[in-house]
Structures are given as structure tokens and as C-alpha cells.
Amino acid sequence: MTQLSLVERTKQALVDENFLRGDPITGDRYYSKEFMEKEWEHLWTRTWHVGGTVAQLPEPGCVITAEIRSESIIMVRGDDMSIRAFYNVCQHRGNRMVQCEETKVKRLVCNYHSWCYGLSGDLLIAKDSEDFPQGSPVGKVNLKELRCETFGGLVWFNMDPNAKSLRDSLGIVADQLEAYEMDKMVRVMYLTGEVECNWKVIQDNFNEAYHVQSLHKELGTFIDDHYQNTAFEIFRNGHSRMLMKGALPAGNGKSKKVQAPLDAMMRAWELNPDDFEGRAGEVRVALQQQKRKLGEARGYSQYANLNDDQLTDYYHYTLFPNMSFTMAADSYQILRPMPHPTDPEKCLFDHWYFVRPAHGETKAATPLGEWPMEAAKHDVFKHGEKSLGWVADQDLSVAVAQQKGLHSRGYSDSYLANQESRVRRYHEVINDYIAGRI
Ligand SMILES: [Fe+2]
């Protein structure tokens, strides 16, 4: 049997024409508690979520926790080096076991009555175990395990015991992402901001690039942001990607000189921006050739897996239900609005930025300037107190006002451009989950 190429398999994974039903995107989806609970029951508890990075769990006994709504999940590296996930709750009386985001332990011990579990979740010691009329809980009442897998240097969990494997759930996206060698990248920026809007306000924003020219004018100096030059691919499994040309100024560079930050990108690869005065449209291909020539010696082994376009362009994925991965050749970012524990009109917006360290680099260029090339600590704050990255700040500048507008009696549905088809499609997939069609 001949193996189909990735390009062929990508084509096969696309939705068919006329894929939209036209389900209305009504305002209540963004503020009703009833809809929020439907999402919890049918969506969040059935899909794969990223809980952290594999790099956070280097040795047996390393533990991380992740929260999704009011649920807390423990992920732990076992003595057998496998990573397991458990609900963060003692089986004795329901106390939360691990109270911090990251720790290292020999055993998992509840601080209430000292029940002691092994790293694989089995109860090893219960005080006064002879005093239980129903028999000793030891070896019987173990931590409740849930599905846990790794992909791309990330630890993922799923609360649905019957869910497809992570690999099957990502489908074609996993095959495409593998080329980037994400597991060799370091999370140098690790931010979470509480924002006063429903999680879908932010996810909708990442499902279209129609807003880029109005909200992110600065990106036009190095990204070709016109929709007719951008490819949109929507996959049947609910995920999608958008291919945007980088190192190519919008309109092919109206200014004669190559502008910032493209000039700095060129210098980093031993190209002189002055040589391209009046020819900014040629920079993209020149940079691709230069990266191809110098990349391997600089330690970028992933370049061998990437096509020429991927060396300069941004492949922006939206992964159902709530993640965006923006992939570049040497870095990627995760943008993720998590649902708030109780309030449908708030969310917790994660911005993680990963960089591939080249030989000997101690600094990484991030959306917030140069940061140390090392795993960052988690910084959690309220939107507006600090920057979440300048592009994300621009996106969020409309999110709160939109949340208010969605309440209006004057709003009944979105009126979408073709280039925003992913927005309606996404809501239709949510409806499919809620109605039990997926
Ligand atoms: Fe944006």
C-alpha cells in the first residue's frame, strides 16, 4: 500500500464544500449559565486539554496541577517514568491533595488524615486501617485516574474515559505539527490573565484574520495580511489552520526601505536590509534560502522537516475546543481562553510562548521583548494590570466591549464574511457536541 503524502492527507481531511449549516451565533451563548453548564457537560469533560509541559516533569515524583473550571487535575511522573493524571481529590473525604501548581514528592499525601498514595495513585497507607468496618482502604481506594497522553512536549488530559486517543483526536494536525519539533522548544513566557469576557469571544477572534488590518496595523510591516493571499483550511475533525505569509510586508512593501522588525530578522540571518531597498517583496524568499543554508549549523534541526514556506510563514492552528497554536519556524505560541469556574462572562486567558534554543543563546525574543532562554514561572494577573503580549492586548482591547454588546436586544446573530467561516463552523461543532452528534 502506498503511503499518501502529507499534502494529500491534508486535502482528504478538509471539510466538504457547503459545510456550514448556518446555525445562529446568538448572544446567550456568551453569557447564559445554562449554556455554560451544557459546555461543561458535553464539551470540556469530553475533549483533550493541555495540562502543562513534559519539561515540568523530568523525574519520578514531579507533579503539576491544572485547573479547568472548578476541577483540578494532578499530573505526575511515576517511578516507571510514565506520566499519569488523577483528579486532585483524596478518596477519603474529598480534600484537595495538591494545593500548588508544581512540586516534587516521594508520595502523594493528603494533609487532612495523612492518607498516603503512591505515584501511580494506589493507596499505600491509611492511618488506623483496621478501624474501617468495610475493610482496609489500602490498595482498594485509589486516586481516580483519567486519560493522560503526551504530544509536542505537552502533557494532555481528558476526563472522558471513552474519548479517542489524543493522536486520533488531533488527526491530520498531529501529522503536520510533528515537523516543528515542539518538544525541543522551551516555554519562555507563561502568562495567564483573567479577562471579563466569555472564552468564546477570544476563541472567535482567533478564528478569523479579518480584524488584523484594523487591530494589528503593525503586523503589516512583515506579514501579508490580505485574506486573498492567506489560505484557510478547515478540517472535518473540528480543528483548522490558516497559512499566513511572513517576511512579506502587506501590499508587498509600499515603503522603499525594509521596515522594523523585518530588518532585524534579516540581520539575524546575515542579510543586509539596505540591499533590498525597493524590493521588500523579495525578502521572504531570500530569507527562506538563507535559513535553509545556515539553519542546520545553528542547531535548527527542525528545518529539515519544514517546507520553504514554513521557514518564514505563520501557520495558525485553532484546535477544538479552545486553543490556538501559532507556529513559526523557530518558535510557537499557545493562546488559550479557559472557561471561568463559575462566571460565563469571564475567562482565564493563557499566553504561552515557546522558543527553540539555538546554540549558546541565553536570550529569547518574545512578544514582550527579550526574556531569558529558560522555562518561565507562571505569572497570573487580571487583564489590564500587565501586558499579555502586544498583539494579544490589541485583541483584548475589543473583547470586553463585545461581551457587553452581545447582551443587546439589538443583536441576534453574526453577519460573517467568507474569510470568517471558521467562526460559524466552530460554533456549529460546539452545537454538535452539545446535541450529542459528536
Ligand atoms: Fe488578533
TrEMBL record:
Lineage: Bacteria, Pseudomonadati, Pseudomonadota, Gammaproteobacteria, Pseudomonadales
SUPFAM superfamilies: Bet v1-like (SSF55961), ISP domain (SSF50022)
Keywords: 2Fe-2S, Iron, Iron-sulfur, Metal-binding, Oxidoreductase
Pfam families recorded: Rieske, Ring_hydroxyl_A
Name of the featured protein: Rieske [2Fe-2S] domain-containing protein
MF annotations from Gene Ontology: 2 iron, 2 sulfur cluster binding; iron ion binding; oxidoreductase activity
Keyword Repeat attributed: no
Cofactor(s) recorded in Swiss-Prot or TrEMBL: Fe cation
Superkingdom of the source species: Bacteria
InterPro entries, A to Z: Rieske_2Fe-2S, Rieske_2Fe-2S_sf, Ring_hydroxy_dOase_asu_C_dom, Rng_hydr_dOase-A
Stretches assigned to the Rieske domain: 48-157
